[in-house]
Amino acid sequence: MIIRAKTKYLFQGRPLTPRQQENSDRNLAEIQAGATVLESLPRRLVLELTNACNLNCVMCGRNAAQFKPTVFQMDWLRHFEPMLDTVEEVTLMGWGEPTIHPNFTDMLELIHRHDARTYFCTNGMRLGQLQKAIFDNHVDVFAVSVDGATAETNGRVRRGSDLDYIVKNLREIKRIQHSQGLSYPYINFVFCAMKSNLHELPGLVRLAADIGLEEVKAVYLTAFDQAMAGESLWDCRSEVEEVFQEAAELGGELGVALKLPHLQGEDPAGDALHKDCFVAWRDFFLGSDGMVRPCMSTPVQFFPFTMDKPFEELWNAPEFQQYRAAVNDRLKMDGPCRRCYQSSHCSWNRRESFLQLEETFSPDWSRA
User: Which of 19, 168, 318, 327 is deepest in the core (most CB within 10 A)?
Assistant: First the structure.
């Protein structure tokens, strides 16, 4: 089965409570109406726990920008706690590796006290220490970033990663899940496709099936500097189509869902600068530096987060209102939106989604 990246909708795991459903219905109606002042709360809190990482991946933007290390404050999450029975999901991800945050397990425990789903994206190198916490705190879904079906390729791209270690721990997590008859966690591989590893995508589907993972998600490499520009698949449509077809057929045979980006020229965005974007309605993104941003794939920073104002005042601040009014308007949207590379909303018909050379693509961490 081929699925596409979610836009308006989020991962559907356990059923929503009546309170969550009411808020989500209202939020979807406000998206449809193009409202700029919202009565609904966001359906997802996206919390960037740190911009630091325990790996040094060749394609990471930190190799093309200056990253001042920043860490999310536990008190910020406690401030959001009254909302966690209303929002659908709390997503722990951003520029860095969330599981290295010193309070990561504490955060899972706090979220678990409430009805919101828990999702995080990880490089997998701390899964051995997190197995108990994943089950104790009902982590609904998590993604593991691997960029090769072999340890050699994955280690070359994701410097410091150990595919054998990751696979060993994923097998144990799936063993525990099946032995206890649990429906969670839903786990997927996330694969950054580039010229030198594209051919290993079908092998990764086989590996996922062997472990018992539900899904493999492929995203195109976005190159941020000349060092990675030669790895871009911008000019490789025929090769991409062939590999995607092989992986999709294999996924169908083995029962692994395959989430793929559109082929160049077939993105439903057509001639638009990006697909219709809903993140400023659906998500509230808080960076590890304490700056509220529209999403993780823009350098734009709205304002410093404060616990001294009601959340609704932040959620409907002038910056949010202006962004909602402009983000889908070709004439009004800001520069970073015009060259969007956010994998769910960008247009893969456009070169700018693949190549962000000499552009300001990450926030100014020095402002923290």
Answer: 327
Task: Report pLDDT for 6.
Answer: 60
Contact assessment for residue 91 and residue 44, using Cβ atoms and an 8 Å cutoff:
yes
Give the number of other Cβ atoms within 10 Å of residue 351's Cβ. 11
pLDDT digits 0-9 by tens, 43-101: 999 999 999 999 999 888 877 777 788 999 999 999 999 999 999 999 999 999 999 99
- Local confidence band at 367 (pLDDT 50, 70, 90 cut-offs): very low
Which spans in the chain are helix H?
Answer: 18-33, 74-80, 104-112, 127-136, 151-157, 163-179, 201-211, 226-229, 237-254, 279-282, 311-315, 318-326, 335-338, 351-354
Statement: the pTM of the whole predicted model exceeds 0.85: yes
The conformation of residue 42, written as its DSSP 8-state character, comes to: P
Torsion, Cα 323 28 340 83, to 10 degrees, reads 70
Contacts of 278 (CB under 8 A, 6+ apart): 7, 8, 31, 345
Say how far residue 357 (Cα) sits from the centre of its chain: 22
Closest listed residue to residue 208, CA positions, set 148, 131, 129: 148
Peptide bond preceding 185 in cis form (omega within 30 of 0): yes
First to last CA, the chain: 43
What is the C-alpha separation between 122 and 166, in angstroms, rounded?
11
Query: Rounded CA gap, 238 and 130, in Å?
Result: 41
